[in-house]
Design goal:
TIM Barrel, 444 residues, 8-stranded mixed sheet, 15 helices
Length: 444
């Protein structure tokens, strides 16, 4: 079996510092050897700068990328932003969705993201009529990921009502399957190829009736598939849940058997102290999306308290207003500093763990996000010679990367042993041109 070799000036192999002069060998898409302090062999490809394991974007809505820069004038709330999002959702077709997602996933690859969790609820044609292939929109996302070269976990989302006391209306009708049993029947027909995977999602407690939450959780459990859910993103969601059920969203999910080590709660911006204990005690992963949570004025979630309670952490780009996992990582720390008025809430290694191995695990990809024997050969090289990182020193290079680097500093990306980014460019897709064409096709 052919062996590929890379030589890294520095690489994060875990822990609080980077190793230097690291030789990485791989065969059949997996790492077979990692040797720090090595001499550079003549046949090894040089990955200059700092090499990180492949990053995981645990929570994405690919089509939201078309709204970047178009929803920032004036005031408003999450709920007014949602009207703009629904207008976009109303016009997408399987073809335009595939083209847009392909370009967005390629942008993620440029940023060092090697695995994405696509939270997918745009299932049907306008009015809620199923396409001839009921999974045409999901298949479009799977095809888009394959073309971009990214590993995808398609989190097919159950979305049955517009609120605790409202049916689906307008563009929302495209999201619904009628009930959770019909959702499960449709999703079970998906047949992903290659390394693509299918998981489940509950959109939110307001979108799935309490008596049907267990059906979605049972589908995921039977298949050992990841299960994701938006949780307590807005105070209004908590208030509506308490008024309708007498429970917080986290309590409602716990009683329905949704929380657990296979589940990821996205946002968890406004949990009570009891909710934090529930999430941590059940080992539910919590995915923070700091750039979106800031953009939509959601608030600052208690990341440190959740981690201390036992909840693993992961990161996502959510609305894709920014695609930069390094920014999400430092955002989690810096938002904690603002909320607590204290520095150093997370060690740099904890932030990198959330952006890499923690995220891969949340996507059902245990063992990913590490530079270690047996792990997928997913590598991200961050250049240290940009204006942002000039002067970085070996002993603190991890801090330099997490707190100063951006996606623009990623110059090489390897996924499954295959070079997908070289000198900052995707090897098969002209990403700026693809994004421009895809966005112009769906916006007036």
């Amino acid at each position: 079996m052919p062996v590929t070799r890379w030589f890294a000036d520095a690489a994060w192999l875990g822990g609080d510092t980077a190793a230097t002069d690291v030789l990485i060998e791989a065969a059949d898409g997996r790492i077979t050897a990692v040797v720090p302090g090595a001499e550079q062999p003549a046949d090894a490809e040089h990955l200059r700068g700092l090499v990180l394991p492949g990053l995981a974007n645990v929570h994405s809505h690919a089509f939201h990328r078309a709204l970047r820069g178009r929803t920032h004038r004036g005031d408003g709330t999450f709920w007014t932003w949602r009207d703009d999002m629904y207008a976009l959702a109303a016009v997408l077709t399987p073809d335009t969705y595939r083209d847009l997602a392909r370009a967005v996933f390629a942008e993620m690859v440029l940023a060092g993201v090697t695995a994405v969790g696509e939270f997918h609820y745009l299932h049907h044609a306008p009015g809620g009529r199923p396409y001839a292939d009921p999974n045409a929109m999901g298949e479009a996302l799977l095809d888009a990921a394959a073309e971009a070269g990214i590993r995808i976990t398609l989190l097919d989302t159950c979305y049955l009502r517009g609120g605790f006391d409202r049916p689906l209306e307008g563009p929302q009708r495209r999201f619904g399957d009628g009930d959770a049993d019909a959702w499960g029947e449709r999703v079970s027909a998906l047949r992903p190829s290659g390394d693509a995977r299918v998981g489940a999602a509950v959109h939110s407690v307001r979108a799935v009736p309490p008596e049907q939450l267990g059906t979605v959780a049972g589908w995921a459990e039977a298949r050992r598939a990841p299960l994701h859910v938006h949780l307590s993103e807005q105070r209004a969601e908590n208030e509506a849940c308490l008024a309708a059920t007498g429970r917080t969203p986290a309590t409602l999910l716990a009683e329905a058997g949704v929380l657990g080590a296979n589940t990821t709660a996205v946002h968890a911006t406004h949990p009570t102290d009891d909710d934090v204990a529930l999430l941590g005690g059940s080992r539910t992963t919590v995915c923070f999306c700091p750039t979106t949570e800031r953009d939509l004025a959601d608030g600052i979630g208690p990341a440190r308290a959740l981690a201390d309670a036992g909840a693993p952490l992961a990161l996502g780009s959510d609305s894709n207003a920014v695609i930069d996992l390094l920014e999400e990582a430092r955002g989690m720390e810096l938002d904690e500093r603002l909320a607590s008025e204290r520095r150093g809430r997370f060690r740099t290694a904890e932030l990198l763990e959330a952006a890499s191995a923690g995220g891969h695990a949340a996507l059902g990809r245990q063992g990913g996000g590490r530079i270690a024997q047996g792990a997928p050969a997913d590598l991200v090289a961050v250049a240290l010679d940009s204006v942002r990182l000039a002067g970085a020193r070996p002993e603190t290079v991890l801090e330099s990367a997490v707190f100063a680097a951006t996606a623009a500093d990623v110059h090489a990306v390897v996924i499954g042993g295959r070079r997908l980014v070289a000198e900052g460019r995707h090897t098969t897709i002209d990403v700026p041109r693809a994004l421009t064409a895809a966005i112009e096709a769906v916006l007036p």
